[in-house]
Amino acid sequence: MCKSILPPLVFLLLAVFPRICFGAACIDGKDYFPSKVSPSYSKNWQISYHNSYKLLTVFSSSQYQYALKACDDAPVPSDAVVLSVPIDSVASTETTFVGYVSVINQANSLSAVMNTSFLCDPALRVRADDGLIATLCLLSGGYCTYTVNSAVLNEKQVDVVLTDSYTASSISEGAANGEHSSVPIVIQETTESHPLGRAEWLKAVAALYNLEATANSEFDGIARRYADANRAAMSASGRPSVMVNSPANYTAFESHSWDATDLTWYAAGPQSYIVRLIKDAGATYAFEAAFAGMNTTGLASFPFSTSTLATYATAADVWINTDFYPALESATVAQVAQRDGAAYSAYKSVQCSAVVPRDGLTNSYGFVAFFESGVVQPDVVLWELVRIFHPNWATLPFTYYFPLRPSTKPSDVSCYADTSAPSSGDSGLSGGEIAGIVIGCAAAVALIIGGAMFFVGYRRGYAAIPSGPAPRTSLDVMALIIALPPARARPCLSCTALTPGGDFEPECVPPPSTPLVSSSTPAACPSMWRGRARKLVAALLAPPHIAGVAMAMRVPVSAHGHRARLAWTGQWTRLGA
I need a surface site. Which of 149, 203, 316, 484 has the fewest CB within 10 A? Predict the structure, then answer.
């Protein structure tokens, strides 16, 4: 008995031992990544596929290359950071990156974030409260120092840290010193000017999980809905002037205090993604003229004194991304006007109650979800902006934005109002959605008509189907009913259906040697059309409908293992009642 067991056991050990000790070897010529991604809007990452590994390149102030290998002996470039995929555990130093992981349904792989207080997703908050997601930064005096705690990476056995280029160097240094084994992956979504370009970084993150197919599906939906919102905005007639952000003393803010004096207004650059959102939502940027003569090729916000922007701010129709209060339930536009003693009461947007912070969705700590999931859902953000600027063109509820409660409007102020609306003939749907509805309605009508014709035909005596184990000719019956005149005439058929074993089906008569009947010999017509209601229903519900069409067209097809061909005689045989 031992001799009979030993050889298989030795063979098993020889097969498994190399894989345990040395990993899985690559199979020559095998494409390990059948699904692939590529950026359409993003400008700062690329990916190429090489059967056993994929090369992810991130463009920043420096260029980063990551060889994501599927098997151990993949011929990866020597100058790339090497990582085995798919990964199991990830950490994130930015809340935006959390959104990328969540949208591809990998939130359970999130092991650490810079500060768990920032998390807004209810499911992630539960995981953080249960200790499954740890705070990544070192704390000092109760505040996050934004320095990565290597002990957390070690404890959580984190494979990858999604981070920016600034933090990546310190993480790499910790790995080189043996403090942890995590690999930093640089994500540079802030360098993208197009909102869809920022969202498309989800594809790069998905490549770490080998979830390219999921990423493509998710992003295609985002891009389609974004285009729908943009189309609605461009159809509206109004073009309001919109300003963003609000002045603050950022030096005081960084020192965890507040000072209402020496306020600086960081205005979004004309090439920034928020300005692109404003324009795609059918509005104009109120501060654009303030940048005249400035070098604004970058995407960063630019500092201005409040007095410099006063002229533009006073005339703006709408004020968004104000983010005045952590809890907006008690805020009104009148309270905004008194903020820090600033002269906001002169602003048209304040007078017209057109002040809209992006604090619509917050967690219990007052942190907003816009920075966690808004970047990866620009379609939702754009639809909300369309509703703000053109109320009649969008009716979805607000998620990220939260219009403040209005105050009494001065009688001498003329407020912006877009009264345009979709015409009765404008469904607001995309071409694909309209086509889907038309096709669906046509299919439903055809089903109803076809069912009625079957019923009428059956009642008249010539709607039946051939007997036999495989209901394969339901559409032949429909074609017969449609083609025949109402005189109960029907064609004689010759069936050459061959079973897998080579014998003719006993129900399939006559065999090929039997001559086709003519109209002069009606009695010789084989009884191939025998009617029973239960078989008619079975035929309607059976999968091989397409096979029936093919057989009616004299095309050889496979149906339930049979090769079959029905040949029309081309002659009509009148039958009795």
Answer: 484
